[in-house]
Amino acid sequence: MKPDYVHRTTEDFKKLFPVGLSGNDINGLGVVERSRPKTFFWHPPAENPFHELQDVVIAHQRQAPDIRAAYSRDADRGPRPLAKNPEPIKKSPAEWSKLVREFALENDSDQVGFTPVRPEYVYEGYEIAYPNLIIIAVAMDYENLSTAPSNIEDARSATEVATKYNTAARSARLIGNFILQSGYNMKTFPGPMATALNMIPAAIQAGMGELGKHGSMINRQFGSSFRLSAIATDMPLEYSEPDVFGADDFCTSCQICTKACPPGAISEEKQMVRGNKKWYIDFDKCIPYFGEAFGCALCLAVCPWSRPGISENLIVKLARRRERLASE
């Protein structure tokens, strides 16, 4: 351990909460009216009343050299935007979707989906200028993820998350340049810091998976072991369909992440959030431990869907269960 390392506990992070303010209220927990998400954690300080907590969470995590290197300015997060071709190349939405998918898969993406921009994907105070979204997924190395949660002595899990955020950003920026060279406009939305785009609902609509009990997505191939990035564009695209394969039903009875969560932030039942009944993570319980544990990710690591070679069997079992119930 480095002699100048400062260890912060869950209680230390709780003390940084603004007085009388709950992150769950900002997130819309218990709100029955449909509304756009509010800017919050991972947004700039002026838009984030929890910015002091956010800054300390980031600083604590980046005491680990590998994490600090992964998030440094020297990390490869892709090229700068190229000049846009003034004349757009004319192709059908199906043709462009095929070409974008092929390009993305050749340039660091592991899955690709397409969806129109919808109001619920855009944070209050922001607008997205272009009508279409390209969502990409980059798989994480499960062996590294499975070491979660991280600490100063072993930060493999958190470093894996950071590295794959970089890979997803690089892929998004390469796709963005492909779009510009094709004569269309674009804007990339790489993680982990948020801007206009609320990524998960857009990714669900784009066919990247279902929302899991742990508040992250479950992909039929990668489980919860993947990172997302996105590109907004006016390139005409053929939209993907949501991929419903049984993860939501599975989560209803599965208690693995709920029991594994150290601060008890994962609810056993869905909650009403901004007019949608959905799986929800208690921010006020999660983030203090998230800060102590360098980004935690334990719930992603223990999720049965994340283990290599498991998802295919789970999908078959769930399909048989649905057939049996339908016949009763």
Overview of this structure, please?
With 328 residues, the protein is α+β, with helices and mostly antiparallel strands. The chain has 13 helices and eight strands. Helix content is 37%, strand content 11%. The mean pLDDT is 95. The longest helix is centred in the middle third of the chain and has 26 residues, at 156-181. It has one domain. The chain has helices at residues 10-14, 23-27, 51-61, 65-70, 93-106, 142-145, 156-181, 199-205, 247-253, 256-260, 283-292, 298-302, 311-327; strands at 111-116, 132-139, 186-189, 210-211, 217-218, 226-233, 271-273, 276-278. Helix 3 (51-61) packs parallel to helix 11. The protein is globular.
Write the topology of this structure.
Layout lengths: L9 H5 L8 H5 L23 H11 L3 H6 L22 H14 L4 E6 L15 E8 L2 H4 L10 H26 L4 E4 L9 H7 L4 E2 L5 E2 L7 E8 L13 H7 L2 H5 L10 E3 L2 E3 L4 H10 L5 H5 L8 H17 L1
Antiparallel strand pairs: 1-2, 2-6, 3-6, 4-5, 7-8
Helix pairs in contact: 3-11
